[in-house]
Amino acid sequence: DAMVIQNPRYQVTQFGKPVTLSCSQTLNHNVMYWYQQKSSQAPKLLFHYYDKDFNNEADTPDNFQSRRPNTSFCFLDIRSPGLGDAAMYLCATRDREGEQYFGPGTRLTVT
Amino acid sequence: GQQLNQSPQSMFIQEGEDVSMNCTSSSIFNTWLWYKQEPGEGPVLLIALYKAGELTSNGRLTAQFGITRKDSFLNISASIPSDVGIYFCAGPQNNFNKFYFGSGTKLNVKP
Fold this sequence. Notes:
The structure holds two protein chains of two kinds. By secondary structure, chain A is an all-beta fold.
């Protein structure tokens, strides 16, 4: 089945130790998103790609970076994770009709 | 930025009861999306609405796109325990590259 895949599902990192979260999609959608979600709140958009065009939200900290080497893959790099960065990170794609599809998320713990 | 007001914030109901939740906006949307999120998982798209006045069903779920294009509601009939989760409404920016989310309705169903 076509889908959005996130690896790993659970990630533990140490305070200040760089970490990379991965997302891949088999939907061939040209728009991909990274969201941060904390305890039952709505997902908060960090950035999105339209093809290779990168769009950063104004309030996304510089600590968060992203790479999209090709249509299928997108990475979220957290350069120096702080305790406040512990959250669920959601990857999503969008189709031509405007429907957005989410991956299962990566739960990040910072120790 | 754009805000979607979703209510109620949480609901505690008995199995078999019907449920209704809604989302309102101060601005017009051309698409409304309804998602369900279970603990530890990403949001799953339930229903997408594209036209003002549109009424769409997906099993026991029914959603409507308000005529003013500033609101939408989601009904769940004959609730069952597996309906438990957080329901989010979402609407895209005009270019469909950014989505705004409601704050979520947490549904609890007592068997």
